[in-house]
Amino acid sequence: MKKYFSKEKWKYLWYTLSHPMDGYYWIRRKDKGSVPIALLLVLGFSLCFSLNRYGASFVVNDVNPRNVNSLTELLGVALLYFLFCVGNWSVTCLMNGEGRLKDICTAVGYALLPLILCYIPATILSQGVAADEEAFYFIVMGVGIAWGALMLLMGIMQVHNYSLGKTIITLFLTLLAVFIIIFLMLLLLNLITQVYNFFYSIYTELVFRN
Amino acid sequence: MKKRSFLNKCTRVLAAVMAAGTVFVSVPQMVNAEDEEPFDTYNYDYWEDVVYTPTPYQTDGLVNGIGLTFQGEEIGAFNNPQDLCKDELGNVYVADTGRQRVVKLDPTLTKVLMIYETFTRDGEEDGFNNPTGVCVSQENKLYIADSMNRRVVILDVETGEYLGMVDNPQSDILEAGYVFTPLKVTVDYANRVYCVAQNMFQGIMVFEADGQFTGFFGTIDVTITLWEKFWKKIASKEERNKSQLFIPTEFTGIDVDEDGFVYATNIDENGEQGVRRLNPKGEDVIKKGENSNVGGDLWINGSSDYSGPSQIADVVYRGKGIYSVLDRKRGRIFTYDHEGNLLYIFGGRGTQEGTFASPVAIETIGEDIVVLDALRNSIILFRATEYGSLINEAVALRYDGDETLAVEKWRQVLKLNENFELANVGIGKAYLTAKDNESAMHYLKLGMDKEYYSIAFKRYRNEILKSNLSGIMTGVIIIIVGFVVYSKWRAKHPKGDKKVKEKQSDF
Lengths: 210, 507
Description:
The structure holds 2 protein chains of 2 kinds. Chain A has helices spanning 7-18, 20-30, 35-55, 70-94, 101-110, 113-126, 134-160, 164-208. Chain A is an all-alpha fold. Chain A has one domain (7-171). Chain B is of the alpha+beta class. Chain B contains 10 helices and 29 strands. Chain B has helices spanning 2-26, 226-234, 237-242, 386-399, 403-416, 421-433, 437-446, 450-467, 469-492, 497-506, and strands at residues 42-44, 50-52, 57-63, 69-70, 73-74, 83-86, 92-96, 101-105, 112-116, 118-121, 124-127, 131-136, 141-146, 151-156, 162-167, 182-187, 193-197, 204-207, 213-217, 251-256, 262-266, 275-278, 312-317, 323-327, 332-336, 342-346, 359-365, 368-373, 378-384. Chain B has a 4-stranded antiparallel sheet. Chain B starts with a helix and ends with a helix.
């Protein structure tokens, strides 16, 4: 446990936030990152996301707070996170990527930190915003999202030791891979249900047979 | 912030309990058949979710002609009646289409005052052939759309004497061989006749007082989406011939307000705009409200026969900017104010009393609403409950500009239905004018009115800033001074800086 949550690792998270290129490089080369911290960040992002949807002032927020369910949203965020990581891993394995699954998970998780850092202040700021001052809120949100996207891009780039162009191509392919994974999962689920139904109908036949 | 929302919730729950308590306490004095109504009564909130409301109107019997007498004789049951209207005294005229007559009833719908069946025209006896529309002008002339005789007959209301007719419109803009089949008719203060005719897609036909056809009015534009254009481009000639034509929808019902603005309904396949308010130039000037929708139901998803957009069949202007439209698909009556806000929804299809089989026309007598059902051959009467009439009064007061008087009504509405956003907004705006910004914010937030909430919020923010200016300024100065002192102290004692730098170079 100590290995994953040491003070050094936490400090390195902040270093990566401000020096993404350098930070991600040493995450791959010298194991400076920590997967558990990345997972915690995913959890934190999901909470902030729900908090924002629930608590942001109605002036900027069109979501009905009664419909916000943080558990479903956590499930959604976690699912997307793992799908992306696995998708990226499976693509980069074939494209001479140097990153391990562990590095990809860390890179993507760390890229969520700016989002957390902007969602909370934006939610607080929204309480003091009137209808024609929405821009302030959206600027804060926008900065967070842009920063996160940039970090993700640099993370994937450095972890796999890619050029920028190749990174963008792999990101696109990752998206395709995610869709393929979803498709296969659904297919599998469907087949399993059919097999289950087959055995179940045999069972009912036997049960109702005198 | 979390704490605040929790507190909010607590107060909300408390308020709900209290409101529920007051409702139950006040039940015995008022007419309350609310739970017995055979239809849903609801409204849509800011998020377009269904919110069930108290019953605004409740059924109060029906009139189907049986048992009514005129000059000692039974008038017999209605047969496929298609339209009804009222005059300034509140007398109701029913176009009893299947029996080729128009029946005039008194405002209580219990007495027959007149039956218009035959009249003398140019010395000859004449009658109707499927009269599908009626209207009474301000000069007490009865206009009857005599559809299969291809004319609009004008009679004297009191005597039933023939006064004239509108037929055979002549114009270059009409196709050669056009057959005029009037379905619905209405007349404005200048005796202009607006006529909805069968298979006439160009709009409402307008006739001058002398019967001269002057042109079309309120043409509905056809919108073709890019997608449809694309398909049209790649379709072959045979396919194109077989595909549906892009023609505007026909108007279904028509009414006119005291200023001469024409309310006309049409069936919109998107369910966005079922009613238009046409100015004298024929332009649509209706306000669509917050949801930008005046087409009935907002929840129209599904694939059953019962789902899909509302089919608005008729409209009635009820004064003070309020109008009600009738949905023949689900038998619901939607009432809007002049800003296009939904006030209440009631009615439904079915076989119980108070539900419809095939509703075709809607009219209002005083505050009551009457609906004509063509399949059940009857007029169904609805009376306003306390809830319904409070909303009507409040909206009327606001329309006249008496916002302060309206507040009292809105408060009573909130006691019956604390989820009604319009009532919250009404109260909030009154607080805003009274400069009670905090209360205004509370109510405007409940009413989900971003614009006015922001006004109240800005004022409130300024108030807070002004009253705490000295404290805030002191705080800012202390922070600045503290920062300066700290940085100077830091410059003198550069302790630990080197270590940090060493560590970072390690990375």
